[in-house]
Design goal:
CATH architecture of one domain in chain B: 2-Layer Sandwich
Radius of gyration of chain B: 26 Å
Structural class of chain B: alpha/beta
Strand order of the largest sheet of chain A: 4-3-2-5-6
Shape of chain B: elongated
Order of helices and strands of chain B: HEEEHEEHEHEE
Number of strands of chain B: 8
Oligomer: heterodimer
Helix content of chain B: 25-40%
CATH class of one domain in chain B: Alpha Beta
Order of helices and strands of chain A: HEEEEHEHHHE
Largest interface: A-B, 47 and 52 residues
Helix content of chain A: 25-40%
Structural class of chain A: alpha/beta
Number of helices of chain B: 4
Number of helices of chain A: 5
CATH topology of one domain in chain B: Nucleotidyltransferase, domain 5
Distance between the termini of chain B: 91 Å
Strand order of the largest sheet of chain B: 5-4-3-6-7
Number of strands of chain A: 6
Shape of chain A: elongated
């Protein structure tokens, strides 16, 4: 015969559950960060009334044109999206070797021209490639990998002794020409 | 015989077993009712991808401009439009918006950053219009909002 044991109280003490729930609540409150905006920052040229032409030797300008069919024309040659970065890097770091290319990174200017019919996504793609050309050169200058460099750029407080140097040696100079409004 | 006789020894514990339920209810209420986005989007907004993106610092100085195809195409048409604060506007109204935003910031008005959230299907035409108007309004710090893309 199986005898039933005298039961003790079967309730679980639940009074501490509230504390646990609060703890969870506070933990998530503290650790939640609302995602901040990320993107490609640019600086627009100020609006000027008098249009005075600044003469820049042709060799220091790297012409990139993106037409309304999202085709890329770089220095008068048709080019694929993937090849722009290397071409831009070569142009920036020419240092006077090739008489058709830039004198020095400080003088090198990339001129980007688009059409009103160009896709925004294609434009961002080209901007991204050009920016990565600069970032890779700066990373190389500082002896970092690209990922390390990007982390540094996101965190200006974490000073790196060479960061300002790299910015000065390889300045980000991108000029956006007035757009064409015909098919181009 | 005392008037203040102690009452019989009934249990003095407050039942606390339902407290966690109450707390969880609170938690769920806030989880459901929290809205992160401050404006209702009237335009489609899939950001383009980019790998070299930088975080924007000082959120208080950032104002948003949305560009994209309207969601309610029968009402607003299929052409991409500009949205600021819950309303669709024409490019010419952008400087007015910038002036209002600058006034809100007070002294820091000159440091204003515009984050342009343009749909990746938009054309450059409208983006260029916005940029020209930003130059008019002397808001020169612009950010093209983008989604992160893994670096290959």
């Amino acid at each position: 015969m199986i005898k039933k044991k005298p039961r003790q109280s079967t309730e679980i003490n639940a009074s501490s559950m509230a504390d646990i729930a609060f703890l969870l609540l506070i933990f998530f409150l503290v650790t939640t960060t609302i995602a901040s905006d990320r993107g490609l920052p640019i600086r627009l040229p100020p609006k000027t009334e008098d249009k005075q032409d600044i003469i820049i030797p042709e060799r220091n300008i790297f012409n990139v044109f993106l037409n309304s069919n999202n085709q890329l024309l770089v220095e008068e040659n048709l080019m694929q999206m993937e090849d722009v970065k290397e071409a831009a890097k070569e142009f920036i770091m020419n240092n006077g070797k090739d008489p058709k290319s830039s004198d020095s990174p400080q003088k090198a200017i990339i001129s980007l021209k688009t059409d009103r019919g160009t896709d925004y996504a294609a434009y961002i793609n080209v901007m991204d490639e050009l920016k990565s050309a600069y970032n890779e050169l700066r990373a190389e200058y500082m002896g970092l990998t690209l990922t390390q460099y990007l982390r540094l750029e996101n965190n200006p407080n974490g000073e790196h002794p060479k960061y300002d140097d790299a910015k000065k040696a390889i300045p980000y100079q991108l000029s956006e020409a007035e757009p064409t409004s015909v098919g181009g | 015989m005392s008037k203040f006789k102690k009452k019989s020894n009934t249990s003095q514990d407050i039942p606390t077993s339902s407290l966690p339920d109450i707390i969880f209810m609170l938690l769920f209420f806030f989880m459901v009712s929290t809205v992160m986005r401050e404006t209702d989007l009237l335009v489609e907004n899939t950001l383009p991808q980019a790998s070299q993106i930088v975080k924007l610092h000082q959120k208080s100085l950032v104002s948003h401009v949305y560009v994209g195809k309207p969601k309610e195409t029968d009402k607003y048409g299929k052409e991409p439009r500009i949205q600021v604060n819950d309303a669709l506007i024409e490019p010419k109204q952008v400087p007015q918006f910038i002036i209002e935003e600058k006034n809100k910031l007070g002294e820091d008005g000159a440091k204003i950053t515009i984050s342009m959230k343009a749909d990746d299907e938009a054309k450059m035409g409208i983006v260029i219009d916005v940029k020209q108007q930003l130059r008019e309004a002397n808001a020169l710090k612009l950010n093209y909002a983008a989604r992160p893309k893994p670096i290959n």
